[in-house]
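PT: before anyone asks, these are the final sequences, not the draft ones from last week. 670 residues across everything. Please model them as a single complex and drop the result in this thread when it's through.
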Amino acid sequence: MTATLRDVAREAQVDVSTASRALNGRAGVKKELRERVRAVARRLNYRPNLVARGLVTGRSSVIGLLISDIRNPFMAELARAAEDAACRAGYDIILCNSDLNPAKQMRYFLSLLDQRVGGVVMNSVAALGREDRERIAQSRIPVVLLSRPPRDCSFSSVRCNNERGGYLAGAYLAGLGHTKVAHLTSAVQHPNLRERWQGFSRAMQQVRKGRRPVLLRGAHNFRGGFEMAQRLLEKHPKVTAIFAANDSIAFGAASALHAAGVRIPEDISLIGFDNVEMASIVQPPLTTISLPISEIGKAAVDIIVRQISGKDQVPEHRTFDVRLVERESCRQRQR
Amino acid sequence: MTATLRDVAREAQVDVSTASRALNGRAGVKKELRERVRAVARRLNYRPNLVARGLVTGRSSVIGLLISDIRNPFMAELARAAEDAACRAGYDIILCNSDLNPAKQMRYFLSLLDQRVGGVVMNSVAALGREDRERIAQSRIPVVLLSRPPRDCSFSSVRCNNERGGYLAGAYLAGLGHTKVAHLTSAVQHPNLRERWQGFSRAMQQVRKGRRPVLLRGAHNFRGGFEMAQRLLEKHPKVTAIFAANDSIAFGAASALHAAGVRIPEDISLIGFDNVEMASIVQPPLTTISLPISEIGKAAVDIIVRQISGKDQVPEHRTFDVRLVERESCRQRQR
DNA sequence: CTGAAAGCGCTAACAG
DNA sequence: CTGTTAGCGCTTTCAG
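LR: through. Structure below.
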């Protein structure tokens, strides 16, 4: 059905190897021949079979993107930027949703290996056992983590300064006079989330009268935020400010608060993390910690691409800065 | 580095063909041998090279998902469902964002062909020229459109009843007494969006005093909705209700309205389309047309999988029903 | 039931 | 500069 290199070669009356060279623009092909081959290829609608090429060259033109859940707007933005960068570099992206489930994550990684992807951008390997981590390292393909990498490991990483982001959130709330605060985060032990919590705690410890924040764990999505806020209202009614570990959690919390007749920011202040597009449009607009999501996605793919083509397999690490975006979901604590 | 079938065969002291049969569970291998081969494979961490397998069998285990933009929450939900279904069937998903740009769309389709994907789920081919459509059809791989297919074409399709959805929105607004209404939709001539508009128009024509709705076109995303609403306020200040062609547009419009001091639903009623998760959490919660997004994504992949494995290449068409979800963004028109 | 041989479509030495 | 040869890792006839 679809024309092969042999068809082109036969039609142009040259050998397949010559046709290959001509089409790939490799040096050492007479101009006239190259033109002829290219003309035939165009006429036959020839398209190179990347599967075959990958088999012989040993390198594929596919990159795996193994994330928690594409429905998380943060991940969608990141995936979009990653896909754009990959496309520009001539790569395709295979999308996998792990829900941060370790078993699922490992299964997906192996299946990406089966597809002989050139590299993988993935959330984190913190939840995986030593053996699995070893297995990933042994695969010898470039891996970029979207979180702080474990010590002495061969993976690259791209992330934001989570600790500082958490600190900014805490300092901001403390500055508004809030002493009884809560942090809504995930049940999963993800480095990014842990660091946010650490930064937040550090900020709260620095203020006098600062009590230890209430820590609630649940699913790190809209529903989880909703449920955690409900629990919070029931068990810790004195809390005057909430720091959500990401914007999705914040949205869920806002929804629960609203349903319970608790006003934001009059009754409770709310601050998020990520600054996804939606943060600016919910009512009230969400004060949150902003990070360059697209740049992170792009940087991750760029590292993979560089490591695939170059031979420098030295891991690269990039940390992006964060900043607080003040909108309308927080205010001075009322006496 | 990674063990090959030959390694397994040598280690198990059988021929590669026997090893292949044993591992693939094909009939006609003595039990004892099969066990031995499998044991060796496990010991060597053998994983089949799907690229090589695809080359010889001619069928790949990858499906292309060629959509407008994964950042659209509707698409993210659909992609997630599609990926889940694909994974269950042993397929991987390659993600491509076309922005509905015809040239980009075609480029991506061809690049998916280069990867020898087994099939493609894509938005629509309406924007493509005849020649490109022909090219897609000639590829002979199963294609599922997420919109009404052009007549006499060989593609399958999965979609919702857009016309009815538009009609429901129109009838609802008319029932609330709105006669001066506007429709905010995309500049792109997408069948889904056109059908929504047609249904909406039909509903408005049925009411007495119903004027022709104002029709505004822009980007079918948050920003587009924002800009269209601004234009609307400036040029058509008398409008009392807005039907947005999708929820993202509605969110953008809500934001612009809010920024201009126009209240929803007191001053203007707003209804969306898609019922993405966010619709229930914005303030006020968005009244919208609901469709089974996940089922659509799953159905699309299921059709591809069925057509790849079975030999029935007859196109399949599925239409899902819609319903109106009444929340708080619309109210009776005030005199 | 198992092995030998051919070949998927392509690239990459190596000769000429 | 071009053709010849070999082979990537796997499946699949075809013999034995």
